[in-house]
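C-alpha cells as discussed.
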C-alpha cells in the first residue's frame, strides 16, 4: 500500500485542517473584524489571552507578521534588539524587523538557540550619545534551527531577570510554544509568565489552515492592532480563520506528544544507521548530520526524495525532519525501511 506514497517530513505546516475545523468554518458567527465586530475572532483572541495568562490577544495572518508586529509595537526605529544569530526572526523573516521596523539587530551566538544571561548582560549598552537604545530581547521556543530544542523555564527566567533589571522588553517567538510546553510537561501560561509578548502559530502542529496569535498586555496589543493595520493585516470576516484556530488551541494542542513520539522513533531508527549519530529530539524536529556519509544536506535531501522520503536542509551537512498529525508510527517504520535499503 505504501509503494508510491511520499512520506513528507518537510514541515508541520503540512497539516491539513480536521473535519471538525472545516465544519467550524461553516458554522462560525461572522462580522467585520476591522470594526472589532467578528464574534469568532474576539472569542479566539480572548481564549488565547486566557490560555497564556495575558490581558489581550491579536489574530494575525502568519507567524512572520506576528513577530514583526510584536517587535514594532515595543520598539522605535534605531532601537537595538537582541536575538540569537540562528533565530528564525533573524534568519528566515526577510530582515523584516530592520527593513520595516528600522531596528538594529544585535545577534548573540548561543548554544542550540540559547544564549546565557551573562552573554546578554555583556551585550547590553549603557546610555551614551553614540549608542542605539537597547530595547528588546527576542527569544524562540522551541528553537527551530537547533532541531526543535526546548528552552526550559529556568533558562527563560535567567534571561528575563536580566531584561527586567535593564528595562528591556522580552518577546518570544513561540511558533511552537505548545510543543515546548508539552515536552516540559507544563502549561504555556507558566512557561511564558515573565515574557511580555508571545507569538504562536495556529497553522503548524496545531493543524489550523491559517494564522498566528500575538498575546500581551492590553496597551501593547492595542498598539499591535494598529501596526497590523499599517501592514495590511486588518481582515474582515476573519472568523473563518479564527474558528479552526479555537479548535487548534483547545483540542489540537493536547495531541502534540504523539508527534514527539514519532520524532523520537525516527531518531532512534536513524541512529542505528552506520555513520549517523542522531540524538533523541526534544520535540517534533529531528536534525541529522550527514557529513560522515560524505553528503551535503542538499545531496542527502535529494537522495532521500528518490525513495519518497521528503525532508529539508537548513544548510551544511544537515537535514531536518519534522513530524506532525499526518505522520503515523507506520509511516516512520516505512521511511526507515526505505532508507535502510538505500544506505545498505
Ligand atoms: C514557522 C515559524 C515562524 C513563522 O511563521 P509563518 O507562519 O511561517 O510566517 C516563526 N518562527 C518560527 C520559530 C517558526 O518555526
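Sequence:
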Amino acid at each position: 500500500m505504501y509503494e508510491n506514497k511520499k512520506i513528507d517530513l518537510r514541515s508541520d505546516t503540512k497539516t491539513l485542517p480536521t473535519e471538525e475545523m472545516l465544519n467550524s468554518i461553516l458554522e462560525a458567527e461572522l462580522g467585520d473584524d476591522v470594526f472589532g465586530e467578528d464574534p469568532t475572532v474576539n472569542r479566539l483572541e480572548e481564549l488565547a489571552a486566557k490560555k497564556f495568562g495575558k490581558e489581550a490577544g491579536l489574530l494575525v495572518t502568519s507567524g512572520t507578521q506576528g513577530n514583526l508586529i510584536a517587535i514594532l509595537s515595543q520598539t522605535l526605529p534605531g532601537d537595538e534588539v537582541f536575538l540569537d544569530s540562528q533565530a528564525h526572526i533573524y534568519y528566515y523573516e526577510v530582515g523584516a524587523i530592520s527593513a520595516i521596523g528600522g531596528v538594529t539587530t544585535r545577534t548573540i551566538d548561543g548554544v542550540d538557540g540559547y544564549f546565557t544571561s551573562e552573554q546578554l548582560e555583556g551585550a547590553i549598552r549603557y546610555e551614551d550619545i553614540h549608542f542605539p537604545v537597547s530595547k528588546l530581547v527576542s527569544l524562540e521556543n522551541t528553537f527551530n534551527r537547533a532541531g526543535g530544542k526546548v528552552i526550559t523555564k529556568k533558562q527563560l527566567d535567567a534571561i528575563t531577570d536580566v531584561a527586567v533589571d535593564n528595562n528591556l522588553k522580552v518577546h518570544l517567538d513561540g511558533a511552537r510554544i505548545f510543543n515546548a510546553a508539552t515536552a516540559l510537561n507544563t502549561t504555556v501560561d507558566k512557561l511564558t509568565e515573565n515574557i511580555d509578548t508571545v507569538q504562536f502559530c495556529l497553522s503548524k502542529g496545531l493543524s489550523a489552515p491559517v494564522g498566528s496569535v500575538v498575546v500581551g498586555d492590553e496597551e501593547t496589543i492595542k498598539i499591535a492592532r494598529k501596526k497590523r493595520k499599517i501592514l495590511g493585516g486588518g481582515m474582515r470576516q476573519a472568523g473563518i480563520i479564527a474558528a479552526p484556530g479555537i479548535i487548534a488551541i483547545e483540542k489540537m494542542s493536547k495531541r502534540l506528544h504523539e508527534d514527539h513520539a514519532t520524532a523520537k522513533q525516527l531518531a532512534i531508527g536513524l541512529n542505528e544507521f552506520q555513520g549517523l549519530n542522531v540524538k533523541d529530539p526534544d520535540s517534533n524536529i529531528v536534525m541529522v548530520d550527514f557529513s560522515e556519509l560524505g553528503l551535503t544536506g542538499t545531496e542527502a535531501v535529494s537522495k532521500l526524495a528518490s525513495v519518497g522520503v521528503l525532508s529539508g536542509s537548513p544548510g551544511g551537512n544537515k537535514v531536518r525532519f519534522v513530524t506532525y498529525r499526518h505522520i503515523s508510527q507506520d509511516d516512520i517504520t516505512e521511511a526507515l525501511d526505505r532508507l535502510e535499503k538505500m544506505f545498505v
